[in-house]
Amino acid sequence: MGEKTIKISARDVNVHYGDTHSIKDVNVEIGDKTVTAFIGPSGCGKSTFLRCLNRMNDTIDI
C-alpha cells in the first residue's frame, strides 16, 4: 500500500451570491477508487459545492 492517489482536489472554495457568502473555505480531496457522499441538511450548500466543482455556477448571472 503506497501513496494515496488524489483524483479530485479542491482548496479554499468560496461561493458568493451578491452579499451572501454561501460556501466558505471548503477543502476536499477525493482519492482514486473512493466513494464519497456529501450529506447535510437542506440548504447547507451541498448542491452549490458540486455545481462549483463542475463549473456549472460559471453560467449564473448575479
Automatic annotation (TrEMBL):
InterPro entries: ABC_transporter-like_ATP-bd (IPR003439), P-loop_NTPase (IPR027417). This is ABC transporter. GO terms for molecular function: ATP binding; ATP hydrolysis activity. Residues 24-57 form the ABC transporter domain.
